[in-house]
Specification:
This protein is mainly α. It contains 11 helices and 2 strands.
């Protein structure tokens, strides 16, 4: 299972490097089902793994001038504040037993996995649906929709803090539509935002989660190797063509988690 876990960790990075999103949506299931990490701890581990991997991947985009620093700040600051507050105050405040429905007890870990599964289903839709040509490479001058960017940034930060996902599938469309960034620049800027908010969220933890640094380092290292593979493949393969197939995989995984944690618990 561990070997499969490390191979899956490489795929997390490959997805981030190839299509700019989706990799982090696999991190929590990999940690929980292949490495046996508790769901609450997995959301914290995921922040570090996703943040570190995105930081490694963003270096190449910086070198190519495909990171819009102004956009990263406008979107990133409210997102960073939201993820920090969520990890520091909201997650620790969730009780260990949230509710009881008949004989089914919704624990904190189960709630985290169910929220994550719902997020996976939502993410799969944005990956599967066809993108209009006008949304991929806008020719307009950059124009910020500040209220919407602030709301979106805060929302993505809260989601990241709660379930440990980087939120690239939410950030990239927002940058393209609200900041009028070309797709490649949106991917590079997204990686910088993901890196900053995820790592700050991880190190802003309340300290209630014990950290297995050996596992964390190995998984982050495997994912970092994957992102270089993904960035190399992106020169050979059109990531947009692979995105729907990956979306279907994420959808199946999300449904599997929902069924496993409710019906077959």
């Amino acid at each position: 299972m561990e070997i499969l876990g490390y191979l899956s960790s490489v795929l997390i990075g490959v997805s981030l490097g190839l299509i700019g999103s989706g990799g982090s949506i696999l991190t929590v299931p990999v940690l929980v089902y292949l490495f046996g990490v508790d769901a609450v701890a997995a959301t914290a581990y995921s922040l570090f793994i996703v943040g570190f991997t995105a930081a490694v991947g963003s270096v190449g985009y910086f070198r190519k001038g495909l990171v819009n620093v102004k956009t990263a700040l406008v979107f990133g600051i409210p997102s960073i504040v939201a993820v920090f507050l969520t990890r520091a105050y909201i997650v620790p405040a969730i009780p260990k037993e949230v509710m009881t429905i008949g004989a089914f007890v919704v624990t904190k870990s189960v709630l985290m996995l169910l929220l994550f599964a719902v997020l996976m289903v939502a993410a799969s839709y944005s990956m599967i649906k066809k993108t209009k040509k006008g949304q991929t490479e806008p020719d307009q001058l950059q124009k910020f929709n500040y209220p919407m960017i602030l709301i979106e940034g805060t929302l993505v930060g809260a989601v990241t803090g709660l379930v440990g996902a980087g939120g690239g599938f939410l950030i990239i469309p927002a940058l393209v539509l609200l900041s009028k960034l070309p797709m490649k620049e949106a991917v590079g800027t997204s990686l910088v935002i993901i890196a900053a908010k995820s790592l700050i969220g991880f190190f802003g933890e309340s300290g209630e989660t014990p950290i297995n640094w050996t596992l964390l380092t190995l998984v982050a290292g495997a994912a970092s190797i994957g992102i270089f593979i993904g960035m190399y493949l992106s020169k050979k393969i059109d990531g947009a063509r692979l995105k729907p197939a990956f979306g279907w995989f994420v959808l199946i995984m999300g449904i599997y988690i929902l069924i496993k944690e409710t019906i077959f618990k």
